[in-house]
Input
Amino acid sequence: MLIVFAILILISAIILGTIVLVQNPKGGGLSGSFGGLGNQLMGVKQTTDVLEKGTWIFAAVIGILCITSSLFIPSNAGTSNKNDQYFKNAPASAPAAPQQAPAKP
Output
């Protein structure tokens, strides 16, 4: 399940990065490189509104996916290692007897 969330987060991050690179508040950027096609269809003001809404939506999607994916992490993930099995099965040893200091002559 974590792999599905990782793939969705990666796709959303790529789309968000693309949206951010396309927009420029001064009217330049990569959106001007497309010959103004988007501006002719939707108008200048509406293009920036759509891109701004897309930025917020994909940022929210990434945040929600990150928080939700943490719910699917198993509770014992990251706490077990090879030594844990050894110590669980090892017999309990008797505590060492305290050593007495040698007698002074």
In short: The chain has a mean pLDDT of 75. The radius of gyration is 30 Å.
